[in-house]
Amino acid sequence: MNGTYQQQYLEEIGITVWSERELVSIEATPTDIKHVSEENKSSYKELGQELSHLANQVEACDQCELHKSRTQTVFGVGNRNSDWLIVGEAPGADEDFKGEPFVGRAGKLLNAMLFSMGLQRQEVFIANILKCRPPKNRDPKINEVEACEKYLRQQIALIKPKIILALGRIAAQNLLKLDTPIGKMRGNSYLYPDTNLPVVVTYHPAYLLRSPREKRKVWQDIKFARDAYRELV
Ligand code: SF4
After folding, report:
1. Ligand 1: which of 56, 67, 71, 142 to mutate, judged by most atoms within 8 Å of the beta carbon?
2. Per-residue pLDDT tens for 78-96?
3. Is the CB of residue 143 less than 8 Å from the CB of residue 174?
4. If you count DSSP H runs as helices and E runs as strands, how many of each does the chain have, helices first?
5. Looking at ligand 1, which atom is closest to the CA of residue 130?
6. Alpha carbon distances (Å) from 155 to 100, 108, 119, 134, 208
7. Are 204 and 168 in contact (CB under 8 A)?
8. What's the confidence (pLDDT) of residue 79?
C-alpha cells in the first residue's frame, strides 16, 4: 500500500491528523427513490446468479414488520469472492435511501478502517444482520434478527468468507448469540455459531463518530483482525 495513503487512513481512525481528500465520496445523492431502486436491481448482476437470486428473495421479504416501513431492502455489496465479510447492525436512513450498507459518514470511516487493514471497500463484502431499516434507527428486535438470520447465513454459504469482522455491539452479540459487552469481545476470536468461521469484533463506525476518543482502540482491533486473517491463509 502507498505509505502516504495508509498514513492518511490511520490518521482518520485517530492515530494522528488526517485529510479527507483521498477518500472516495459515497454520500447518498438526492436521486429519485424509484431510480435508485432500479439502479440497485441492476447492480445485483454483480453479485452473480445465486446471490442475485437471494437478493431478489430479500427484496420481496415480508417476514417481519420492518418490511412495512422500509424504502427498500439493503442486501449487501462487494466482492462475492472475498475472504472478508464485514457485518454491521442494520440500515440507517442513508442506507435505506441508497440501498447500500455503510454509506454517508459512517461509510467513509469504514472505508478508512478497511484501508488501514490494506483493503479497499470493493475487495470485501459488506452486509448487515438486518436487511431493512428499523424505524428511527431503534435497536433490532429479537424476532426481527431471528427472521432475517437465514439471509445472512445464505450469504455466508455463497460467499464463503474466511473471516467475519463484526462492527458494533449489536452485530457482534446477535451474530455470536452472546450478551458479552463489546469491550470484552474486542481482541478475541470467536466462531460463528455452527461453523468454523472466525469472527473478530470492533466498534461500529457510527459509534466512533459519536465517541472519537474510542478511535484509537480500533487500531488495536485492526491489527488483531489482520493477524487473525494472516493465520488463516
Ligand atoms: S428485516 Fe429481514 S426478515 Fe425483516 S422484512 Fe426485512 S428482509 Fe425480511
Report:
1. 67
2. 999 999 999 999 999 999 9
3. no
4. 10, 6
5. 1
6. 15, 24, 20, 21, 27
7. yes
8. 96
Query: Interior CA angle at 50 toward 131 and 35, to 5°?
Result: 55
Q: Is the CB of 189 under 6 A from ligand 1?
A: no
C-beta of 130 in contact with ligand 1 (< 6 A): yes
Question: What domains sit in the chain, N to C, each tagged with a CATH number?
Answer: 32-230 (3.40.470.10)
At which residue does the C-alpha cell 482502540 appear? 217
Q: Give me the DSSP letters along 37-70.
A: HHHHHHHGGGG-HHHHHHHHHHHT--SSGGGGT-
Query: pLDDT (tens digit, 9 = 90+) per residue, 203-224?
Result: 999 999 999 999 889 989 999 9
Judge if the beta carbon of residue 95 lies within 6 A of ligand 1: no
pLDDT in tens, 17-52: 333 333 333 233 333 344 445 555 555 667 889 999
DSSP β-bridge partners for residue 77: 126
Q: Residue holding cell 449487501?
A: 76
For 3, 103, 135, 164, 176, the CA distances from 33, given in Å and listed in that order, are 39, 16, 18, 31, 34
Q: Is 61 in the pocket of ligand 1 (CB under 6 A)?
A: yes
